[in-house]
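Escalation from tier 1.

The customer reports that the assembly of two entities below gives different structure tokens on two consecutive runs. Tier 1 could not reproduce it. I'm attaching the input and our single run for tier 2 to review.
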Amino acid sequence: MKQPYLFYKLLLFLFAGMLFTTSLSAQSIEILVKDSKSGEPMMGASINLTQGKSSRVASTNFKGRFLFEKVKSGPYKFWVNYMGYKHSEVFEGTINGSQAKTITVDLQDASIEMNETNIVGHASKETDHSARALEKNAGMIQNILSANTIQLLPDVTVANALQRVSGVTIQRSNSGEGRYAIIRGMDQRYNTTLVNGIKIPSPDNQYRFVPMDIFPSEMLERLEVIKALTPSMEGDAIGGAMNLVMKSAPDKFILSANISGGLSTLFSSSRPFVHFNASPNKNSPAAVNGNSYTATYSDFNNQGLTSQKNLSNPFSSTAGLTIGDRFLKGKLGVIVSASYQNIYRGSDSRQLTPNAQPAADPLPNTPLFSDAYNRTYSIQTQRLGIHNKIDYIIDKNNKLSLYNLYIHQSEFESRLNTDTTGFGTNSTSIRKALTITDRNTLTQQNIYNSTLHGDHKLSDKLRFNWDGVYSVANRHMPDRTEFSYDAKQVLDANHELIAEVDNNTKLTHHWENNTDKDIAGYGNLIFNHTIAGREVEFAVGGVYRHKKRKADYITYGLAGGNSTLYQGDFSTVPFTFNSPADAIGSNNPDLQNNYSVIENDNAEYLQFRFNLIPKLQVLGGVRVENTHMTYGTESPMTVTQRAGTVSYTDVLPSLHLKYVLTDDQNLRASYFASISRPGFGELVPYKTEGQYYNQVGNPNLKHITADNADLRYEFFPGGADQLLIGTFYKKIYNPIEYFVVKDGGPSAQVIMPQNDSGAATNYGFEALLTKFFGEIGLSLNYTYTHSRITTSKLLYYRDPDPTIGLQQSFVDQTRPLQGQANNVGNASILYKSGKLGLDIQLAFVYTGERLSQVSPYYNLDFYQHAYNQLDFSFEKTLIKKLSFYGKINNITNAASKIYLKYPNGKLDAVQQEFLSKQDISGQTLVQSDYYKTLFLGGFRYKF
Amino acid sequence: MLLIVTASFTACQKWKQEHTDIYSYTPPAADHPVSDKEPLSCNNGSTVVPVKGTMLSGKTYTVSDGCDLVINSGDTLLLQPGVKLNMGTGSSLIVLGTLVSNGSKDQPNFITIPGITKNDQPGGLLIANDPAYAGKWKGIIGGPTCNLMILRWTHIEYAGLTEGKATAAIAGSGLNNQYSILFANYNGNFIMEDSWLYGGVDDPIRISAGKIAIFRNTFEKNGVHGGDCINVKGGAVGTMAYNLFVGTATNGQKASNKGQATGAPQTNIVMYNNTFVSGGYRQSQSGRGGTINFEEGAMGMYYNNVAINCKYGYRVVGSPAADIAHLSYGNNYQWADSVSVANEFYPTGYSTKPQTTDIPSITTSAKYLPPNYIPGSIYDGSDAVQKNSPMFLNFPLPTTGHPLAQYTAVGNYNFRIQANSPLIGKGNTSIKPLIVVPVNSIYGIAEVTMPGTDLGCYQLSGVGNQH
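Tier 1 run:
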């Protein structure tokens, strides 16, 4: 841990001063601390040196060394300790006569470290150094961020921290906060989230992937991004698996606490933060009174909107507390960690919506837009994370641990939206049809996970470990309240407003809930045997998971009608249902979206590991994944696809080779097959609101399979330094892409996920370099990704034969996968001065241009422009255990901008009137989101 | 090593397996002829009542509340003259095969909700209280396999209820649809002649695609707060002529090529001799139109039409543009009680080009229209107010006593013309109807009325609209 390191350094100065007065001897002892297994030098190990009544404490430097100078002549004693490792023996000796001794200490890992099949971490390994050791010694390809790195990062959520990992880009939410990780150009559907190696269910309303912004980053011991799967790992990751290894019980008492506060520069009196109190109606009238109940206006509470008030400078705050200790002679370890965040963020967003169909004149697929959105978001996010781990060492062969994680996130999103509708039809140069919407949404997400884990050494050759897992993930959107009205503006020839009529008021109350419950059991049996003089490790094991998912939706739409004009106070509008039938729950079209899913998955594997020649480790085997999923909706019996069963079996071989070039260099090659299961919301035939289009599920969707190959060179020169160079190739079968389909009419188009018949390819190159020059460190990573998929797109054109006229046909277009950027890089400069007790980091992220929205039409895809973000963070020790830290996000107010690759000057004149300010002549800016800078500053206390 | 990988990969692909079993519903076959002995009712959790065969002259058939009357693909339901088909609340008529309602002038058919009294006095009922706009049943929903739908001398009333998922799933339509009639097969034929469409919620007739012939019909109280009375989209080809529209929410006739399917033709609609009265006043959006509208890639023509006090005149949209190079128009008449109506004869903000054959003449005065007039610009229509009274048999102009928005039904009015009407003899008879549907006294269009010498849907000779 960095904090004790700084603390001890300070102590050292104190002691050094005292010693100075008592002794003037010239002897020295240099102590080098190494990991007994890897031989890796260990930075930050603390050394207690005692000579008679005086003692000195120091910690090792980046090279695992510390030089005690001016040691008194005579006998000495010292021992070394390091979190997560056993205390060293006590070294005793005598020094005299200008001697300079060098002593090497090998520390042993305190955990019952087994191998890859034992995925769950046991001891605190929070330093960069141990992260490097894990990367180096792992059987497969992965990248690790240590707790120390995370603590110093400018990021408070795991999602934002993920963007610092080589090959990872993030997808942002409306507040600019990272939400999902794209690993090596493979979007979130291709990646899984593990907590301590255990897969957790997602609170997402549609997909299996977990929103990564829900996890406070300070709860982590380390963050692993595993890019190649071994047979013992769950086989449903194609891009990679993100394993959140949570803090585990320490060797001795620890206490750390932090508190901080901050501001976003987005908000001011002229652009206030819109705060609201959630509606008291947690459940819909139908949920309270039954589906046959006829609701009236009085059943609804508009507090979500009426409580709205403006805050000009809302103050964000975070707090964290970790307490851990070990009892019963070290047999029982307990850690409890809690984190609370209350962050105010937001964004200003402008967006053009493509018309459902482009124009065929003057050229095929000439772009047209239908709407311009101008949205301001105010988002208050409250996160509470509590985790607790108890481990009990029964005897030297048996160990049990119980892990509990509870994560809660409440997001209060206030969105004010002005929609200019119908360019050229409803809105012209002298007339504007605006729809103004005020929508307040509370989204509550929870994840609970409880894992009981056991490790048993059955004999010298046979070990067994197991996990019993219960998890719940849910998401509630209680009473999303939306008020909208149409503003019809008449403009004069100079575009000045001369008249406005506001009516067509609408009020919508919406509820949605989804819950996943998982019960899972994992078991692994590991057998070591010597064959032909080689130690061979066999492992067999499996997972069984029973998953239940339920989702329900209901929307009540009330209208104030056209005859009542809106005068600025919606409480005076007499809202009613269009027809009494609409007020009855069972008539609600949303109700037929309600569904439940039961999924039973089981997987079995066989894995072997041996050294073919001393320098070549072979890890391989095969995994069988069986999936059996049944869904049912509340649709009546006349609705095709109302229920269904999907089952499939996949056999996934893998092989990982590690060739040890030298002690600090590896060469790796691996192949693995893996799958990706479609999300429930994609499979079940229901309809959800989307950004441009509504989205419907497709029960005929097949799961995705992939072949993945990797090659990597690794160099760990010591300390936190490393150099990794790798390349990868993926072939993805049945990739799921979104296509626009008609939904009962030309204006009603929806997007539907479908498997593309052609396979997609994705290959690339990764490089990562971390190097410390004394107190200054440099960390660079860069990933080049190239993915291609060919899909059928629409071409709307004019046939030269005038009797045929306008036509639509299909043409193939080859393009990158959605979300994939060719070039992704991170650069950070670190300054770590033990002397000053100061750590500083300046972090820069570059995400190259990437495909953000696939159009159904040829050449009309939207691309997000290259995005640069600069963040800064520092931590300064004030006194002993107390430090001051600060984080600044998005210093340059980088905007997310999305473009259509069509010269904006060539759009037709009527369309051009509705464009916002353009900055690239060869393209059309269709969306821009500004987040401004966020400041956080606070104190950290560590005992 | 590569060999092992290849070998194991091949083996694994063999072990791989997949099984899906997704629930599928097919409406049951209609196994007996349709009968009027008892209500056509659905039960056992299903809303479907399959029907085929013949509904007999003079008989009344009843569909129970909430049931979907389904004509399966390949089946035909024929309504002889004088049939009354009473639809239950929340019911629908889904046509996956063929529907022929063969009413006659003497024995018209009714597809309606029984027991409702109409009030067609201007302003007689508030919109919220008028059953015309209530959407009592879901309408006639033509599915993608509907190859022929004929409504002849037939009253369609009180439809437009939201389809909902179950009905939309059977019909292959859209769950939010609120149409009285939907047709959605570009290879199929939709024929409506001498019929009446009363009431509606959204677009009373939506032609998503199809070959169409819509002749000599009367449309009243169509659309609550929006909806174009006959709204045709990408892949619709045919003719609309001699129709009378009173009080449509938005346009009477609209053509667009939006949503043209691959394989479908470009929308091409010929419109002539239609009459529009007080159109466009219930549309909540501005500028949408109240008469005829061509937009987004639609081609065709419109001639010999009459518009009385419509909120907006004939509208040609410039973006997303109609197929202006293949759109022609002229000989169109307009009447304005007030200057606000006349100011939108050539709707401001759009691309309609004034024609020399238009009435009032575009050279009426220096203001109407200015010599440097550019389509879409603001002009002063005061010199075009109350010019050339059409001399209807019974519809005094300028109107008195009611706002224009309250003229929503024919009621006691009569829009036939008197012998001194300025509409007489102004028609363009050189244009041709576009007939792509079969011509047949039962299974096609029985009568194609050619463009008339008099403007509007009533010819002094008695030809044209027969209502």
